[in-house]
Amino acid sequence: MFAVFKIAMRALRRNILRSFLTMLGIIVGISAVIVGVSMGTGAKAEVDKRIASMGQNLLTVMSGNMSRGGVRGGFGMQPNLTIGDYEAIRKEISGITAVSPEARAQGQIAAGNQNTSIQVLGVSAEYLAARSWNLRSGDNFSETDVRNANKVCLIGATTAKTLFGENVDPVGQVIRIKGAPFTIVGALEAKGSGSFGQDQDDIVLMPYTSAMKRLSGDTRLRSFFVQAATPNDIADVQAQLTDLLRQRHQITEGKDDDFMVRTQQETSDFFNANNRIMTILIGFFAGISLVVGGIGIMNIMLVSVTERTREIGIRLAVGARGRDVLLQFLTEAVLLSVLGGALGIATGYWLAPLLTKFAEFPTLISHTSVMLAFTVSAIIGIVFGFFPALKAARLDPIEALRYE
Amino acid sequence: MSVPVIQLEDFRKTYTSGEVEVHAVQGVTLAIQAGEFVAIMGASGSGKSTMMNTLGCLDRPSSGRFLFDGVNVGELNRDELADLRNRKIGFVFQGFNLLSRTTALENVELPMLYCRPGIRGSVQRDLAEKALALVGLADRAEHTPSQLSGGQQQRVAIARALVNQPKLLLADEPTGNLDSRTGIEIMGIFQQLNAQGITVVMVTHELDIARYCRRVVVMRDGLVRSDEPVKERLLATEALANLDAEQKAVQLA
Asked: Does domain B6-252 have CATH number 3.20.20.30?
């Protein structure tokens, strides 16, 4: 077996440029597979990471229903979740550790002569714990603050920096949001670059009551944030939430929900669906280039068999069986494709980080994809090398010896 | 008497090229005993190449029987033919048929690659070196064919033919591509091997060369026309000595 390998290696070295060009098809194909799959897994890992960073065991209740009939009842419609819904969830759902509305308001914020326009999020006092957000200084607002819709707020690191500059503790300062004064009771720790692009630290949190009454004037909510106690409770909580809200919204049997309860898993699936399509597309094109590469190998092997007809004749004359010749040429083809595969994998390892660096696309090379690529390249060698090898093995020794 | 190495009984070979049937050999009965040194002669188209291919077990008879060392070759399949060639026949060709860009030693090792059961690499190397030494090329083992003269290449081919200790050494116009002196040298090697008991059968169209053999079979139109021992057999050693003497005389003159 080693002798066969040696002979094949020598045959390939004899035409080193030709061997390399033949491998090129496989190299391109395999590196495309590696990079493509690494983009898919990279994007998925990124999504998963961001979704996990939102907190643990979270469920989101959204008004409208995007999952059925496209965007029907989605963003265009009036929000239909109420404070009553929130309080009912708080009281009646078991197995949850935190629940909070998310009342969003956009507004101009000013402190001294600095001002900025950012997202104001009205939440309950449980929100910080649910999202595992920590305070750098000061305290969270209290249940009393929520009940009384007090003008207090928590400030994100970026916002604090914009308004007060670095190294200044903003706690105790007063900011004006849409003209109304709010006292900063706590400063949030920096969380770094945020979920889905936006800066998570450019934010102001306040009791949802304050946000609704004093800023937006809304009476309805777009979403709730619910934290299940353990991962095992998630499914049950989801079912409870659905039942409760259907009841409260008086949705009769057979009618579609006018809200959506999504687990983190479902959210990540939603975003990963696109990634999967992208991965499949890239894989498809990489697959085509692998087939083309395989045909290239077959072509060169056919040429090689013709060129070496006399050699085959000699080998047959001195006692090589058909299968010896078959094995020899098959080994060459497999060696070509496997070497091409190895080079393709190396190229992939080299390209993927470049892609991350210059195109800022997250990539992650999985061992599975490397193994798969390697196996595929070996299979290509066997499949596309078989016909030429068979042709060689079936040569008539007399004809082959006479071949000029 | 022992089993003949080669026994042909009414051997016929017919090729169909297009719609024309070519009767290359039309009934040859012939026996070659172990230790013989036979030349098969004939003009082109006489059927001697077909004889050669059949005796070399590269091809099977269309009809008639061919027994090689007692084995009916007509009943063997492709793999069995290959094994037979591997173990019992050594080929020497007109065009040497060495693998280019492969050293003399590796060329000689070639038949051993296909031995069943396999032979260990180190043993292969030893045997190949011995075979090369036998044809006087021990010092050229690492040379490739392009670095060797025609005579040396043919000697590598002979070493390759001998390495599996075959029953039969089969040579197809072994001197055809060589100058007359080198041709005689090659015949000298054959005579030497034959003297050691190896059966040699060669195809040639040169009468001079045939006279180094012991028996000459002449073919014409696919039939054996004559089959007789060589009278006044030439000895390569003497012929070479004569050549040297002549050359010396020319230089002196």
From this structure: no
